[in-house]
Amino acid sequence: MRNFLKAQAYFIKKDTMFRGISLMFLVASAVLAFWVGGKNNFEVINPAQPLILLTQLSLFLYFVIPTYVCFFATEGYEYGSIKLVLASGQSRFAYITGKYISVLNFIFVWLIQFFGVYYVCYMAAALFTGSAIGNDGLKTDMLQIIRVLGLNVLYLSAYAVLILMVGIFIRRTASAVVATLLVIFGDFIFSGYCREASSLLLRELSGYTLTTQIMKFSGVYVVNSQQVVLSGMKSVVEVLVIPLVIIVICMSITYFSFGRRDIHA
């Protein structure tokens, strides 16, 4: 397993698409820092407040990272490396587990990069423009940031295992990318279209989509012109249980399917 993880890490570092997305996040973070900061003259109510502003834009991550996960999930079939890995003695369980662990690693890297570069640029611009840095509500905002970052990791992990399952089922990158985009945009459209539908069933189903939960903990979910946020034990349990259930179900299906199907790279 360790050697396989090292090989995957080496592949990711050398992958042109990974480098391109990393550069895109770097540029996007810097641009967002100056765009968001410029709208409020780089006001800093407390050191955590700039990140609070960014959490409302973190939905952007869910359109980019799952797409790369799709390419990463199918590269073994596209390049034929999956046969070599399994022939070297690596078990199928270890292959899937290693893939998922590698995905979690670059999710962490991109989250740190996205939020970290933004924060450094924002605070540097605030200091350069002479903005005062206050301390009002620091504890509350810090807890909010920790919660949102943790939930972003959890929900990106849920999307990742869902896309990993799709990639392992379809195997071909082009077809898997199409399926991935359908999953991402389908969830997004279903969440938005059905949240104010006349049907009670559709409204209930919309409330349990990944996109709905992401928008809730990011502070951008609005129903009937009313902002809906996480409040109460029920909503907290929902926001935690939904992605965990998806992770368990999708990983179980992936292990079972991959363990029984022949490999045709």
UniProtKB/TrEMBL annotation:
Give the transmembrane ranges: 21-38, 50-73, 117-134, 146-170, 176-193, 235-258
- What are the record keywords, sorted? Membrane, Transmembrane, Transmembrane helix
- Protein name in the entry: ABC transporter permease
Could you tell me which species this protein originates from?
Paenibacillus agri
